[in-house]
Design brief:
Layout: H1 8-21, H2 25-54, H3 63-69, H4 76-79
Helix pairs in contact: 1-2
Length: 81
């Protein structure tokens, strides 16, 4: 169970949407969370990886190495610039 407090303007928008569509406010709140949760997790993971990089707890890998590890053919002409 989750209870959230929303600003009055957002609550009104959510209420209007629910009434216009015949769905519940809970339905739309759930949909919004599901849609954006993965993005929020990705942002957190990227920030953590950057923090680890700056702190010396991790390191970068050259693009050519990463591509080879992934089985992607590296065309040396495309990399020269």
């Amino acid at each position: 169970m989750l209870a959230i407090r929303l600003p009055a303007t957002i609550e009104k928008r959510l209420d209007r949407l629910a009434k216009r569509t015949g769905r519940t406010k809970t339905y739309y709140a759930r949909e919004a969370i599901l849609k954006h949760l993965e993005d929020l997790e990705d942002i957190y993971d990227a920030e953590k990886a950057l923090e680890d990089l700056y702190a010396g707890r991790s390191h970068t890998v050259p693009l050519e190495v990463a591509m080879k590890r992934a089985g992607i053919k590296v065309n040396e002409d495309d990399l020269a610039d």
